[in-house]
Amino acid sequence: MTTVAEQVRKVPSAVRPTLQAAIRMVREIAPGAEEIVYAMEAPRSNRMVWKHVRFAAEGKNVVGIGTLPDHVNIWFYRGRDSSICAHPPTPSAPSSSRSPATHSN
Fold it and tell me: What is the pTM of this model?
């Protein structure tokens, strides 16, 4: 089985620090998330995302990280929320389509 560290070592040095930072960021935000390594070799096309790791909670994928030759991609799986976060975002107050100055009773 391939480890995250082994996948990171395969990445070109130009994007490796950014990939490491992205993985570190997800680990800090969601320390309890399960890390699942994509056992994917470098793609033949430089336009194809090289998927490295995804993070799951309660058996469902939440976020994935991959690279292209010159940048890192982070994507979120549809329908998941921030319940895996150590510090979930605080909900903001509902916004109104009217400003308080124009709101009448």
Answer: 0.73
